[in-house]
Write a structure and sequence with these properties.
Strand order of the largest sheet of chain B: 3-4-5-6
Shape of chain B: globular
Number of strands of chain A: 50
Radius of gyration of chain A: 38 Å
CATH topology of chain B: Folate-binding fold
Radius of gyration of chain B: 14 Å
Order of helices and strands of chain B: EEEHEEE
Number of helices of chain A: 24
CATH superfamily of chain B: Folate-binding superfamily
Helix content of chain A: 10-25%
Largest sheet of chain B: 4 strands, antiparallel
Oligomer: heterodimer
Structural class of chain B: mainly beta
Number of helices of chain B: 1
Distance between the termini of chain B: 27 Å
Strand content of chain A: 25-35%
CATH class of the largest domain in chain A: Alpha Beta
CATH architecture of the largest domain in chain A: 3-Layer(bba) Sandwich
Structural class of chain A: alpha+beta
Largest interface: A-B, 25 and 26 residues
Number of domains of chain A: 7
Shape of chain A: elongated
Number of strands of chain B: 6
CATH topology of the largest domain in chain A: FAD/NAD(P)-binding domain
Amino acid sequence: MNQAFRIGDGGLVNRDKKLSFKFNGKSYFGFEGDTLASALLANGVHLVGRSFKYHRPRGFFGAGVDEPYAIVQLYRNGETEPNIKATEQELFEGLEAKSVNCWPSVNFDIGAINNFLKIFLPAGFYYKTFMWPKSFWYRIYEPFIRKAAGLGVASTKHDNERYEHKYEYCDLLIAGSGPSGLSSAYAAAKNGARVILAEDKPRFGGSLLTSDVNIGNQSGKDWAEGIIAELKTMPNVVVKNRSQIFGYYDHNMLVMSEKVSDHLPKTKKYHPNKRLWYIRAKEVLISSGSIERPIVFGNNDTPGVMLSSAAKEYLKVYGVLVGKKPLVFTNNDSGYETAIEFKKHGVDPIVLDSRKNPKSEIIDEAKNLGINIKNSYVVVAAQGYKKVKSAEIASISDDKKKLGKIESINCDCICVSGFWTPTIHLASQSGNKTKFKEEIDAFVPGVSKQNETTLGSANGVFSLEETLKTSFSAGSELSKKITKNDNNIAIPNVVEKKSSQHDKFWCVPLPKGKNYKRFLDFQNDVAVSDVEIALREGYRSIEHVKRYTTLGMATDQGKTSNLNGLQLVSEIENKVVPAVGHTTFRPPYTPVSIGAIVGREVGKHSKPTRKSPMHSWHEKNNAVFVDAGVWLRPRYYKRGNETLFEASKREAKNVRTNVGVCDVTTLGKIDVKGPDSAELLNRVYTNAWLKLPVGKARYGVMLREDGIVMDDGTTTRISENHYHMTTTTAQAANVLSHLEYYLQLIWPELNVNVVSTTEQWAGAAIAGPKSRDLLQKLFPNSDVSNEGLPFMGYMEGDFFGIKARIFRISFSGELAYEVNVESDYGNFMWENIMKVGEEFGIQPYGTEALSTLRIEMGHVAGSELDGRTIPYDNALEGLVSKKKDFIGKRSLQRSAFTAEDRQRIVGVVPLDRQTSIPEGSHLVKDDKAPLPNPKLGHISASCWSVEYDNPFSLAILKDGKNMIGQKLFAMSPLKNKVIPVEIVSSHYVDPKGERVRS
Amino acid sequence: MLYINCPHCGMRSQNEFSYGGDASVKRPELNKEVSDQEWDDFVYNRKSLRGKHLELWQHISGCRQWIKVERDTSTHEIFRTFKAEEEVA
């Protein structure tokens, strides 16, 4: 197709570069610099989609971010993205897009039957209709509505694009590069302030690109280009196009989405698709401009009806005529500007002005050009289904209530201008209490809450001269305060045409006997009649009306519909608009890709990965890893075709019979130093610490103030005022914060310092009956006999020339030691242990075998210390001192915590000695009892006991103390299992703890 | 995102801090008899204030110091910040 609606020359597109693209499978050409919308319009394509509710044909309404209709599904580089505005998507070679919300095609859409059923689809229809029968909702209504609604399809594939986040600080952040943004940016930059200027469109200049004005003896567009070129050379200025500031958050933090690659056929290597900027600004200048608002009339959603400013932009920026027989319908002078542009390009427009006798320079110019102007005239309804074919027009009485005789007039587009709505979203998001400005029938920012200043037409100032004056001065004053520089910049002289007062007229009355749909919200299909129903049904608050009718709730957030909706409510309610108020503006201003919000934090990058110094050895030796918090730990070391179950059994068995070695580097380690260290430990742990001698370790339990166990671990007295505390892997960070809290806030008089040393030490647990023999070989110069290094003893040793710490502590319940060396020697230590251990049958063991070993010993871990248990529940009450006070002690007196039948840890064995009990199973007395079956306890951890070769589990059980020997049922509805079990002691193996002391 | 003036490090973004609750709560002294009510007030009972609130934050990704922050819970305005040991008048 040739571009029949492209004018011979003019516009800012690059006519030397032709681009081919496809829309709904059909091929077209456009030019570099086009948007998908302008390229389609150049080819005369006006039908781009179907509406949300009635599936009415949809065309283009705007030319930018305010577009409510032209939402397409984009295909780019093998990916698909929904919810793309054709008016914002820049054209690239090979672009492919499809219409959404229509089936089987945009030309023949079955859903359009809703349009004929519209009488049955009024406001609140879904709320009223799909309420009953209740069971129908999930099965029938919801899937149907979902299929019928929606604005595109999200890709189910992994997104291969890359998204970045960037944090930035500046003195002045300026949103918008129109006349106001450019002026303030220039003034501030000249004062040496660090400036970020953000423009959402590809081209800088805002309204200067389309308006017929002069600044400093050159055209507005040339002036803008000059300013931008100079700003780009300044080191203190960042100028960004394709960058939308969409959110204004607390303490002057704004977030901007920069489209880095969307305008390219393919993202460049090492480039992101989008970049999200978190900008902390000292001052924010909101120069976001204004959006033209429509006038409401019959069938005002027909393709070909669009904003007059959009028609002008298509012509001036893209060189595209939106129609060849245009009708301009206006209540102010802006419509004339569009009409003049048409006329200049050889197209004869007809202007309908609702005003009786307006006079201004612009109108005079239009008259001089011979443009046909009809005063006190309105469009009653657009005619045509998939495209405007004609319009019903009529004269209107001075009070705007009575229509004259209806005439039909041929036209192929209707350009509407109902005056301008300041874009106050960012100011409102910052907490600014907006106020209604009567002269412009719209809200403008009121008193600033944060450091924000709104300028230009966003502040309701529509004179260019005034905008330049206030913006230069704001940019200069605000930057002067920060930089103390004052380079008085002269404000350039401005030539603009004076305009006359607009008409406070926004909605054409229905002619007698006609029932045209008059739309307020074009994206959500909310018509005047819907709001009338909502009000008749008693909805009063504008927030309620919004939710009931969905007015302003679509992805365009009511950019073109809000004010007309408010006008209607205020008219029916007989209130003034400020009394009705507007709904809250919330970020984002315009839809933002989820990918951009997530940034680089996807998959493996969503959290850091910590690896022990021995990680590469584990990898080489077929370790299968498991996530333990942010750590990667070997779960088991696979031999041949072994399963997890087989390998962990082999590893655990080897610990019980020979010797095993386990990487325990991940355990949290905290150095506690200072003369009051013992006193701190004594207050933090439940047991006594004042008398622990140097060279001894002790097991301790710490509580939260509410009496719940927080963590456990051993702490060793390295020297007089130096302790080495260990924590569980998961709680390491919390325990450090906990200690810092008490040292800094509660007991600052204690002379103690704490610091994390988790990363500084590599740890290897050597466990099993042959561990001492191995240790003796590793440390031939140390006395590691039972006397020389008794249970809970500590010594330093020489490990092949390296200083090592040796702790005789045991988690496995076997005779066991833990050797620590400085992290950099971790691998060296590990390799030597494996080498020397060979003759003792050493095998590495992973977390699965580690769990097996601790479970059958009845040692508690994270699954028992789950934030819901007290020391008694874990059979740790022997460690609770009766004499001294400690954190959380007072809470242990709570009656629930001292109840006779308090829950307690027990062992659980299946009666058949065969069936493993799923973790999380509930213990019940009667497996046949009606639901909800009273729960007595739950299985916290399960293993296959290598000692007895049958399943064994730990459970936290109500009145556990008196339940030993009882028969219960373990029920797991999740795994569909009911297992008869017997309750036994939690100390299943070596109940007297002889092995660790042997 | 809040912008918090750490008395040790200067202005830092909220994501460097973790929240620590009401700073006006006083822990009963060790070894002192306390009633159930006093203890419950210390452990559990908190006012959910609208307006000025003195609260604890820890600069966990910075200097690791616990600080006190006087903040308006409805507007998020931060008035003053204090070091842990500073008494707030």
